[in-house]
Amino acid sequence: MIDLGIVIANYNTRDQLRDCLQSLAANVGVSFLTYVVDNSSPDGSAAMVHTEFPNVCLIESTINGGYSYANNLALRQILALDPAPPFTLLLNPDTVLPPDALARTVQFFDQHPDAGVVGLKLIMGNGKLDLACRRSFPSPELAIYHSIGLDRWFPHSPRFGRYNLTFLNEDETAEIDSGCGAFMMMRTKALQQAGLLDESYFMYGEDLDLALRIKKKNWKVYYYPGVTVKHYKRAASTGSAKAQYEFWRAAYIFYKRHYAATTALPVHWLLVAGLAFKGGMKLVREMMRPLPPSPNQAELCS
C-alpha cells in the first residue's frame, strides 16, 4: 500500500512543473503515487511529463476545466484505489519541496490524530512568507476589515490581523482555518467525509471551501512550519483580467454558499456592493441569477 497520493493540476507551467516533479522524486521516507492533470496546456507540459517522468500518472484533459475540475479527475482515481492511501496531497506545480517534506508532514499527522489537513510554511521567490499559507475563513467581519485595510494597518492585532493570521509567529505550529492549496495534505478519511473540490470554483476559493467542509466534519486544520516549501506563486494567469474576475467570483460563491443566509441585511448589501464593484458587470450579471449548484454536487458532503 502506498502512503500518499499526490495531485498536481497544471496549466502552461512546464518548466516549473519539471522542477516540482524533480523535487518530489528526491523525497524519501514515504511511498507515494503522483498524478499530473494537464488542463490542455499549449506549452508541451504533457509531453514533458510523459517523456521525462514515466512513473508519474499523467491525465490529459481535453479542456481547461479549472483547478477544482482538474484535481477532481485525479482525486477520483486515488479514492478508487484499493486500499486508498491514508494521505492525499494537493500540490501546485510552482512549488519546490525539500527531500524530507512528505515524510515529515506524514509524521506530523501521526503525532496529531485529530488533524484532517496540514499545510506547511510557504516561502515565495522573493524570500517572504506567502501569507495565504495560514488563513482564517473570510467571514463578513474579516472581509470588511480586509477591504478597508485594517489587517494591513494593524497586522499584529489579534482582532484585525485574523485574515492572514499575521499576529501569529510564522515559526510556530498553529491550528488554523485553512492553509493554501499550493500544499494541502489531507487525511484521506477526512477528504472522503467532506467530499471532493467544489467545481463551481474555477480558480481560487476551492481550498478554503474544502477546509471549511473538513472542519465541519470535526477535523482540525494545522499550520506546520517545521518544513519550508518554496512557492514561486506564478499561477498560470496571475494578474490577468480572467484571474482577477475569478478571484472575485470565488469570493462571491464562498460568501453565498457559507455566510449569506446568516448575514444581517445591511452588511449583506454592503458586501454584495463591494463584490459587484470589484468584479465588474460580468459578476453583477452572475449575481443577479440564483447561485447554481456545483457541477459535482453529488460528490460534495454537507
Structure description:
The protein has helices at 14-25, 45-52, 67-79, 101-111, 140-147, 150-153, 188-194, 206-216, 241-258, 265-287, and strands spanning 4-10, 32-38, 57-60, 87-91, 95-96, 115-124, 174-176, 183-187, 220-231. 38% of the residues lie in helices and 18% in strands. With 302 residues, it is of the alpha/beta class. The mean pLDDT is 94. Strands 1, 2, 3, 4, 5, 6, 7, 8 and 9 form a nine-stranded mixed sheet that branches. It has two domains: 4-231, Spore Coat Polysaccharide Biosynthesis Protein SpsA, Chain A (Alpha-Beta Complex), CATH 3.90.550.10; 241-299, no CATH class. Helix 1 (14-25) packs parallel to helix 2 and helix 7 crosses helix 8.
* Helix and strand pattern: EHEHEHEEHEHHEEHHEHH
Structural class: alpha/beta
Oligomer: single chain
**Total number of strands:** 9
What is the straight-line distance between the termini? 30 Å
Described by the principal axes of the CA atoms, the overall outline is: globular
CATH architecture grouping of the largest domain: Alpha-Beta Complex
Relative strand content: 15-25%
Mind telling me the CATH superfamily name of the largest domain? Answer: Spore Coat Polysaccharide Biosynthesis Protein SpsA, Chain A
